[in-house]
Structures are given as structure tokens and as C-alpha cells.
Amino acid sequence: MEDFFGTNIDLSELTEKAIALVMTYTPKLLLAILTLVVGLWLVNRFVSLLDHRLGRKDPTLNKFLCGLISVVLKLMLFISVASMIGIATTSFIAVVGAAGLAIGLALQGSLANFAGGVLILIFKPFKVGDTIEAEGHLGAVEEIQILYTVVNTFDNKRIVIPNGSLSNATLINVSVYDKRRCDMTFGIGCDDDIDKAKEVLQRLFEEDERSLSDPAPRICVGGLGDNSVNLMFRPWVATDDLWPYYWDMQEKVKKAFDEEGISIPYPQRDVHIYKTNDD
Fold it and tell me: % helix / strand / coil in the chain, to the nearest 5?
């Protein structure tokens, strides 16, 4: 048989070569596919087991480490499968390295986020479950991923913050200590009895079971306003009780001041009208 260029083609020879290629590479291909399927199952199983075990001991490190191990193991599996098929792994690794360099230069921000995640896990400025204030957001840390930290706000919003920003910026961790000072300021009229107002605040402090006596509360005059005397009220409470205590005390103080005849002034302005002749 002749092809388009007039060259003789031996069909039997081509068939023998095709059969030889199939016999040579089919077992390798099937073995590679089987290895890939089983390998992915084992990797996912191992990561799931690690997630379950590590999640009990260190939830902060859990998601980050599991994600990193999953990526590394799958990359090693793909390289092994490629070598089983017959692809030169040396060249393959070189290509992967060159591609990794190019991708790294293009994704410098992502690499900074990865490095930031590592720094967060090493120095632990916060952990999963802590309440932090960072990048203008306040909420509880849900998880620390490879590149991002997930924060759930108290009004049920999900905020994703890059780890690079968290590791290089100032953040406030309000969950480090088990008690906090609740800062409040109440203004009373200039003609009202300051000592009586202090006694009312002290009584409200003692009546509330959430109030902590150690450290002792601070009740003092914080300043003289344009039309008020500002009393600083600084009690200590458990960290979890801070905001409920603050909101409840605002209402209690208003009602108690009304009962005791202590006024809470509001801005006033005197307007004087002068009548003049048209002349």
C-alpha cells in the first residue's frame, strides 16, 4: 500500500507496532490511573483524619496545616503518577519549578498572605474563637486558612481578611483576658448633688451580680461640660458580660436618676429676639 507521497506502507508492520505500544503502555496507564484514584482517596482520608484529631487539640493550626499538607501530598502524587506513565520527572520538576517561579512573581500578594499565615501560627496573636478588631472589623475568628482568616461579625456577616494584612497591621484581641473594664460616662445637671449621683451608681454596681469587686470600680468626676457635670463610671466585669452589662446599665442609670430627681441634661440654646424700629 502507498501513502499520499508514494511511499510503501506495510500495514502488518504498523499493526504490530500499534499492538506492541498498547501492550507496553496500557498496563502502565491502568496502573497509573489506579494509583491516582487510590492515592487521592488516601490523601483525603489522611487529611480528614488529621483534621479530626488536630481539631480537638489546636483548632487554630488545624485548617492551615491540613490545607498545606493536602496540597503537598497531591503534588507528590501527581509527580509519581507522571513517572509511572513514562514522563521524565526531572524535566517535569524543572518545568514545574520554572512555572512556580513565574507564578510566584505574579502572585506576590498571595505569597505575602501565606507568609503572614505562618507568622500568625508561630507567634499566635490570636486563635480560633477569639474576638478581634482588625481592618475596621470586629468579630469572632472562625478559621485561619492558608491565605486568609475568616471572621464572623456579631451581626452575622462573614469577613475574609488577608493574612498579610493581619500580620503587618495593628489588631485588637479582646479575648486575651477573662475580665474587662466597662467604661461609661453619665452627665448630670450642674445644680444636682454629685455625691448623691455617686451613691446611685455605687448602689447599681452592687446590685448587679455581674459586677466584679476586684479590681474596685472607679466613680469620679471626669470633666465639666458646657451644661453638665460628667461622671466617669468604670466597673469591671467578665469579658463575655461586657456589652450586655453596658446596655443594661444605661437603662438602669436613667431610671434610677429619674427616681432620685437627678437630671441628665441635654443641649440647650437660648434665643434672644430684639425688636427694632424700621427707622
Answer: 55, 20, 25
Q: Which amino acid is at 271?
A: V
Three-class SS state of 268: coil
Q: Tens digits of per-residue pLDDT, 15-37?
A: 666 666 666 667 777 777 888 88
| Confidence category of residue 54, pLDDT binned at 50, 70, 90 | low
Q: What's the average model confidence in pLDDT over 248-274?
A: 84
Q: Residue 114 is inside which H or E element, if any?
A: helix 108-123
Model-wide pTM > 0.70: no
Which CA distances in Å does 224 have to 219, 220, 229, 231?
15, 12, 5, 9
Cell of 252: 438602669
Chain position carrying cell 482517596: 41
CA-based nearest residue to 125, from 71, 161, 179: 161
State the Cα–Cα distance between residues 59 and 150, nearest whole angstrom. 13
Share the mean pLDDT of the chain. 79
